[in-house]
Amino acid sequence: MLRFGDICFVPYLHDTGYRAKFTVAAAYGAVNMGYPQTFDCAPEFIPGENCIAGADAVEMADQLRRFAGDDSWRTTLAEASRALYDQAFTFEAMLGRYESVLTAAIEEYRGGALSAAEPDLSLIHISEPTRHICLSRM
């Protein structure tokens, strides 16, 4: 289990698709660390602002020492990491993206060959307490 102020170290030289791992770590207030290109898959993570990046192993070691010894810097990064999660990755933050994808899919469906034969689709609501996005036929 990650804790606030922990580090999530992903030392890969390429965009490895670790976007989900970064997001989960941020949810706990953990700080992601890797090479600058490690974060290419997750542009919301900005080295020095809400994560840490080192250009090479020596710089990473220096950054890790600083992270371990500088409580203020560690706390600032952890708070920024958690704030990023709240602003960009919570269900509420993602709702607009979900809605636009579903709206585009519905519009594409309406314009397709089945649109005349099938009832119309409409986004109705978010069910509670599960918070599923529900579609219904009209």
The main sheet comes to: 3 strands, parallel
Count of helical segments? 4
Terminus-to-terminus distance: 45 Å
Helix content: 40-55%
**Strand order within the widest sheet?**
1-2-3
Molecular shape: elongated
- As residue ranges, the low-confidence spans are 113-117
What is the ordering of alpha helices and beta strands?
A: EHEEHHHEE
Radius of gyration: 20 Å
Total DSSP E strands: 5
Mean pLDDT: 83
How much of the sequence is in beta strands? 15-25%
Write a brief caption for the model:
This protein is of the alpha/beta class. 44% of the residues lie in helices and 16% in strands.
Please give a structural write-up.
- By secondary structure, the chain is an alpha/beta fold.
- It is 44% helix and 16% strand.
- It has 4 helices and 5 strands.
- It has helices at 19-27, 57-69, 71-88, 91-111; strands spanning 7-10, 31-34, 51-53, 121-126, 133-137.
- The protein has a 3-stranded parallel beta sheet with strand order 1-2-3. Strands 4-5 form a two-stranded antiparallel sheet.
- Helix 1 crosses helix 3.
- The radius of gyration is 20 Å and the shape is elongated.
- The chain starts with 6 loop residues before the first strand and ends with a strand.
- The relative contact order is 0.12.
- Residues 113-117 have low confidence and may be disordered.
